[in-house]
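Checklist before submission:
- one chain only
- standard amino acids only
- sequence pasted in full

Submission:
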Amino acid sequence: MATAAVEIPPSNHGIPGSHMLQHVRLPEVAPQSPETIDPQRAAGAWLDAFNALLDGQATNMDKVFLGDCYWRDLLCLTWNFHTFHGIPKVSDALKSRGKPCPLKKLSIDSSTANKKPAVCSIDFKGNLQGIRAFLTFDTNTGRGRGLVKLVQDVRDGGRWKAFTLFTTLEEIKGHEEPTYARRPNGVDHGAHAGRLNWQERRRVEANCEGAFEPTVLVIGKSAFKRGTQNDSSDSLKVLDKEA
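Returned file contents:
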């Protein structure tokens, strides 16, 4: 039985709905031995300049970013994902957010030895040396982390500038993940009348008993595996107490 031939598009053929990605142009950096680079000092100086830029105390963005820079932001500047390429796009993004800037209290993350500023390779071959530093910061609504890679601009006297910057929102203030010290206690020790253990409190939340009410209750057709038995629930609507 003959089979129909399957047309396999070549790698350079554009598929509807797709687009070709442009190759990143690596910056021109001054050749320098990693032993002569002080990553902690360079990252600290860059962070001071960046904080001054965000606070409105400085406007010379070309002293902080390379001309051909990239900033990938996830939910920090806006409630969306953005990639800003080049100083004009970065400048427009910051101006559109107004003052004060949503990003504040930026600092170097040196919580572990692996996160401290260090010399790194910018390219895959390891010919271009730079500095990578992890960041922590606050926003108007939450807290985030970031990663910046710095290179020396040969056209500006070897000044350390950001080639790539990544920022992401990790948690929202007032709605932090219940981990570590924020975890609920399993047992409330002491002579308390009507004391509930952890399992009983979970049952109260699941059944919406007493004064507990959910903000959003979603009940849909799904299956929950309990041992070897599957229980299916009927498809209902989405209920919102604030609606």
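Reviewer check: Confidence is low (pLDDT under 50) at residues 223-243.
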